[in-house]
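The following record pairs a protein chain with its ligand, BV8.
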Amino acid sequence: MSIDQSFEDTYRRLADALTVTVLTGAGVSADSGVPTFRGPDGLWNNFRAEDLATPEAFARDPQLVWEWYNWRRGLIASTRPNAAHQALARLERRLDQRGGRFRLITQNVDGLHLSAGSRRVTEIHGNIWKVRCTACGLVAENRDVPLRLLPTCSRCRELLRPHIVWFGETLAAEDLRDTYAALESCEILLIIGTSGIVYPAASFAPVAKSAGAYVIELNLETTPYTGVVDRSFQGRAKDLVPALLK
Ligand code: BV8
Ligand code: ZN
């Protein structure tokens, strides 16, 4: 099958499907100007994950970790959803109107899918605009840029942390339940802009495939998913996603 035929075939499948699950990673927000984690301009080239995105790092130096999140909050505050986020929000509305089912699972913490109007979103790694109390667990929205350091809980005055899942922490049970239900029941899994190396998200494609889903990958590059999926297209999310969903 030529690339054009393959694109046309994928476009048709997406247009006909009633149950679609989408998994996104940093690549979908790269076109909005949010830095990715890996790759030539990735965050982990300048920062070590274990110095900043682990519970041990926060226990050691909460000021340093909060400064990093303040810097990222500043970057993200000036960004807007791009054509890929918007096309996914339109797909959800289209499926709603046709009595279909949609679930967007994102590893991104930037909140741009919600800003674009997506509603059935599971943010499996949390959200940078939420804070959580390290003592009483209260979760609250906080959009201050910069956030005054060190922030404390309105209820118990103890230290707040970002409401984000760090390396070595488990994902919320409810998020995992919704995620696996969506993976195991979809006709199509669309994977967009993720390097496919962070678990458990790295295992989602095989889960959906074993349950019978048709799996499509959109990415600038090939990834560990590429050999496993049914179709893989290389290009920018902001171009590929609207073209496949128009
Ligand atoms: C857990 C939040 C159970 C911070 C993040 C060894 C083997 C297997 C597993 C492990 C292991 N050692 C440790 C683990 C577990 C670990 C893990 O997977 N580590 C990896 C690195 C091996 N996982 C965990 O700890 C998870 N929890 O497993 O719980 C447990 C717990 C304890 C003990 C036992 C079991 C928790 C993971 C939490 C991760 N949190 N950070 C923050 O954001 O502030 S990770 C970070 O990576 C981000 O959240 C990010 O979302 C995530 C995934 O990255 P991607 O989104 O894929 O981004 P990346 O930059 O990598 O790639 C971008 C892609 O986009 C590229 O492919 C690029 O080509 C593409 N792209 C770029 N531009 C575009 C584009 N595509 C299209 N268009 C473009 N324009
Ligand atoms: Zn508290």
